[in-house]
Please model this.
Amino acid sequence: MSSLLPHFENPPLTEVALSLQFETLEGLRTPQIGLVWAQFRDRFPLTEEHTPLDAIVERFGVPRAGTAEMRLQMLESPPVPRVWFLQPGGAELIQVQPDRFVHNWRKLGGTEHYPRYPRIREAFFAELQKFQAILESERIGPIVPTQCEVTYVNSIVAGEGWHSHSELGKVLTVFSAASSDTALAELEDAKVSLRFVLRNERQEPVGRLHISAVPAYAPIDLAPQIVLTLTARARPAGETLGDVLACLDLGRSAIVRAFASITTPEMHRIWRRNDV
Model:
């Protein structure tokens, strides 16, 4: 992990997720997920059931290569739910389904301290090792990675540096409301969607960085905010846990550099950037 990445003392982060997608484990049904939870229950005593996440793989050199491929399946029985294992308070959780393992950190009450990527990475690695050991002991099958995913969600609340959704250009360097004449009325709000190719050391395309910025309102006081989401998705170079971690590090590096590139120096001052 590079020590030369941009660094902010007070980033607007509200969620970080590290995810491994793998070939579907047909033997990982609801009872088996219960066995998995039993091994995590001491730290994650609460559970919730959710609709499974779709399997998405970034493709290159195929028709419609500019988009990710979503796999559709014809099911003869109801899908196995995605089960959340939650800590009390819900700030950290694990998500398990037959083709995915995820660790999330969330800022729910406004007071949670962001533990930083190295700590989340360490927790994810230990949890993934335990998950793999359970799969082996229960003879469910090996993990065959297909995609790694890193997501950072930022809730940028109005008040410092900008005040209304029409001022997106004060937050993002990639947006301008300038026009060639006076025909347009006052801008009310805007959305931004960007996609960048991720390459390995040999400059081969291995994934994509997806960036979106959407206008929203804070749930408590309804203050304007911009939800800036950065998701890096790539295929690991191999099938070992080391390959998985290297792929996650690549995605995290791309996200942190992109966040600094697409946000303005004024917002950097507010978030206390201290690497420059």
